[in-house]
Design a protein that fits this description.
Blueprint: H1 2-23, E1 28-30, E2 35-41, E3 44-50, E4 55-60, E5 65-70, H2 77-82, E6 84-86, E7 93-95, E8 98-107, E9 113-122, E10 125-126, E11 128-139, E12 145-156, H3 159-165, H4 169-185, H5 190-195, H6 199-213, H7 226-231, E13 233-245, H8 248-298, H9 302-310, H10 317-324
Antiparallel strand pairs: 1-6, 2-3, 2-7, 2-10, 4-5, 8-9, 11-12, 12-13
């Protein structure tokens, strides 16, 4: 019994040790789905491990780099199911670790998005990932200085170039996009860009996306090598995410103005509704008086009964009827109470 327990604990210990070694990339490692890892031998790039579905790595002696091309990589049953791979005898063979800087979006307690700058030591590259890029001091057509956030989905197609040649490739990408962002922001007013729904902004936005995607192209010259040849990265998609004035007081003033405009429009609508209600009420009053007039014209004996039932002073409906000239009736005193009709009612 003791031997069985000892064997079970021995197996658990070995598995736990292997798992910790894989987490720390010692002798064996783990490559999560969608990531790329570089294996170095004595500090020099040696081979590439990736877990990108539908892609295979091909080394090109001409560019001294790996190209991720369409196809299926033959990695073995165990790697496909666990992501665990063989690195080599440590410390000769290691997984490359390097510092990387990027921005991430975090949702704050108030529900608003917060851009957080991060700098960490990483041991892999994301084949395709979404990065928010921040551009400051971008001027609109009405001279507002703004902060612009553009969401870029980038793909790494040449891992060695992205890692070694470009150093921090995301900074190079941001610098390449800056002039495109500046042109786009300068093509419209601050309010148009905040709304992003006017015809001018929609057209300019389409042109902006097209110009950014053209950064992937190359004319095989040193002046325009293209993103792939210069940093080993291509832009998969781009989206203009948000724009804010650098001076927050301007934003607050614009929001206060918008609230005042909405309140003003609401007051106008309310006034129109009240005026319409008064017109409807006045029309109903006229119909009532006309009906009363016809009733009195057809029944002269009803005048006294109507007066006794409804007369309550000079502001009564009957008084208004008499003032209108529809019926000439004495409302009190010792005067004669003849009943006459207007010409149109005789």
């Amino acid at each position: 019994m003791a031997e069985i327990l000892f064997g079970i604990f021995g197996v658990i210990f070995v598995m736990l040790t292997l798992y910790l070694m894989a987490l720390n990339d010692i002798v064996i490692g783990i490559c999560p789905q969608g990531q790329i890892k570089l294996i170095t031998k004595s500090g020099v790039a040696h081979r590439l491990i990736h877990a990108v579905a539908g892609k295979r790595a091909v080394f090109s002696p001409l560019i001294q780099d790996f190209d991720l091309v369409d196809g299926e990589e033959v990695r073995g049953w165990f790697f496909d199911r666990t992501g665990i791979f063989w690195i080599g005898l440590w410390p000769i063979y290691r997984v490359d670790n390097y510092p990387f800087e990027w921005n991430s979006i975090k949702i704050g307690d108030d529900g608003k998005e917060i851009i957080k700058h991060r700098r960490e030591i990483v041991n892999s590259q994301y084949w395709r990932f979404e990065y928010p890029l921040v551009f400051r001091s971008m001027e609109t057509s009405d001279n507002f200085r703004t902060k612009v956030v553009v969401q870029v989905i980038a793909e790494i197609v040449r891992p060695l170039r992205a890692r070694y040649y470009a150093k921090v490739w995301l900074n190079v990408l941001s610098a390449a996009m800056e002039s495109k962002v500046r042109d786009f922001v300068g093509s419209a007013s601050f309010e148009e860009l905040r709304g992003q729904k006017t015809e001018n902004v929609i057209v300019q936005r389409q042109g902006f996306v097209q110009r950014v995607m053209e950064l992937n192209l190359t004319d095989n010259t040193d002046a325009n090598p293209g993103l792939v040849d210069s940093i080993g990265v291509t832009i998969y998609a781009v989206n203009f995410k948000s724009i804010d004035a650098e001076d927050q007081r301007i934003v607050e003033a614009l929001e206060a103005e918008a609230v005042a405009e909405r309140q003003g429009r609401a007051a106008v609508i309310t006034a129109k509704k009240k005026a319409k209600a008064r017109r409807i009420e006045a029309a109903a009053e006229r119909d009532y008086l006309d009906a009363t007039e016809l009733h009195i014209a057809d029944n002269p004996d009803a005048v006294e009964a109507y007066k006794a039932r409804h007369y309550s002073g000079k502001d009564s409906k009957l008084t208004h009827l008499f003032e209108k000239g529809a019926v000439n009736v004495n409302l009190g005193g010792n005067q004669n109470p003849p009943t006459t009709l207007p010409p149109n009612r005789r």
